[in-house]
Amino acid sequence: MNKASGAAKLKEMVEHSRYIVFFGGAGVSTESGIPDFRSAEGLFRKVDNRRVSPEEILSRDFFRRYPEEFYSFYTSSLIHAEARPNAAHLALAELEKQGKLKAVITQNIDGLHGMAGSVNVLELHGSVQRNYCMDCREPYPLSLIVESRGEVPRCTLCGGIIKPDVVLYQESLDMALLESAAQYMAKADMLIVAGTSLSVQPAAGLVKLYRGDRLVLINKAPTPMDRYADLLLNEKVGQALEPFL
């Protein structure tokens, strides 16, 4: 299917839908200058004279044992404070304002959907925009983490270590949030899946809960769900959704 006919079909599907749900991954934010985390696979660090992968650095155990090394990597590789919403984020916010889009379910932690104006955003893996003291639970904004310049940020009230409100490796997703996402999937009359390889579980398994006949997949690379799509668009997410601005 060429781009013109694909865009026309997407527009028609949106026009005939009343309960759209969007499920997105890293590819939604790459157009905002935020690289896919998988591109960081080559970013290894030396800790205690051993080679450490990004996955290990971003684990709960590593955070507790080596907070200095964690924050050095986290602030240099996962924080993109200058990033702004792109056409995809803005189009989804517009569809929500129109009453068509009921929920944005995202695997991203950048907070760009909220920045674009989306209200009902389910951030399955948390957000860098939120941070809290592990001892007294005092909340802190992203600006404090940025200002720490890689040093371990401390609570101004009790001196406890501040932790980003993101799901680290070895941590579980919020089950209540996951259940809410599942309910939206089950109710949707149209599901747009974009910018994700659908390889991360359990989040990717949510897509299988959709039972409608308007499944749209927008991704540059193939996914395991391509054969089930009612519309498959192999292009940038912002490019596909920009007509809805």
From TrEMBL:
It is an enzyme of class 2 (transferase). Belongs to the sirtuin family. Class U subfamily. The keyword NAD applies. Nicotinamide binds at F37, I109, D110. Coiled coil: none annotated. GO terms for cellular component: cytoplasm. NAD(+) binds at A26, T30, F37, R38, Q107, I109, D110, H125, T196, S197, N219, V237. Residues 1-245 form the Deacetylase sirtuin-type domain. Pfam families: SIR2. Binds 1 zinc ion per subunit. It is found in: Cytoplasm. The keyword Coiled coil does not apply. Its EC number is 2.3.1.286. Keywords: Cytoplasm, Metal-binding, NAD, Transferase, Zinc. It comes from the Bacteria. One of its GO terms (molecular function) is zinc ion binding. This is NAD-dependent protein deacetylase. It catalyses: N(6)-acetyl-L-lysyl-[protein] + NAD(+) + H2O = 2''-O-acetyl-ADP-D-ribose + nicotinamide + L-lysyl-[protein]. Its main location: cytoplasm. It comes from Paenibacillus oryzae. Its cofactor is Zn(2+).
